[in-house]
Amino acid sequence: MPKSAVPVSATALPSPFRNKAEREQDRADKRAAVLLAAVRMFNARGYHAASLDDVAASLGVSKPTIYHYLGNKEQVLVECVNRGLSMLRDAADAAARAPGSGHDRLRAFLLRYACINMDDFGRCVIRTNEELLSMDSAIQFRARKREIDDAVRGMIAEGIADGSIAPVDIRFASFALAGALNWPARWHDPDGPMSPAEVAEKLVDIALGGLTPRG
Fold first, then answer.
1. Which CATH superfamily is domain 19-71 in?
2. Cα distances (angstroms) measured from residue 190 to each of 58, 87, 159
3. What is residue 108's three-state secondary structure?
4. Among 63, 65, 79, 179, which is 20 to 30 Å from 215 by CA?
């Protein structure tokens, strides 16, 4: 072997540098942590009272870090409500594919709906008024909420058609159900004696009582 040649070990040394997948996962994890801290701050203090400085301080990072991962304050709020709306939309889609009657599918969705609204991102959806958003964001927010309402109306209509739900005013019924199941987002205490699932079960049973066919 020439004196200048350096033998190469057959076993490669582990690299101290993250690969692309690891860097992307690290960024996703940090972004999720920032988003969770922000939504909890908004829910606890209200959008106007909460600041991105508070969010940054709660994570031990600088305010520019929040901008880096999520943008300005309204962009952070929009991301929070979109996360909650996506959860609700996924729940509606899952219920629509479920077996059983229209009443069964509606009940399954409402149980999930109520639980989501007592969680961080669903709670933010309920507590966010359109007036807090720019015109474009408010229009998108309204349209996505309408999708959820349309899904509920569709399940009620299916239940009426198959006889599992009494003939009712579908629009009025969907408003009544949403009104009843949105309120826990404001009064339920995560540290209280009842879990979200227990609250949802009781409320849904009461709310659906008026839709049960008579006789």
1. Homeodomain-like (1.10.10.60)
2. 20, 19, 33
3. helix
4. 179
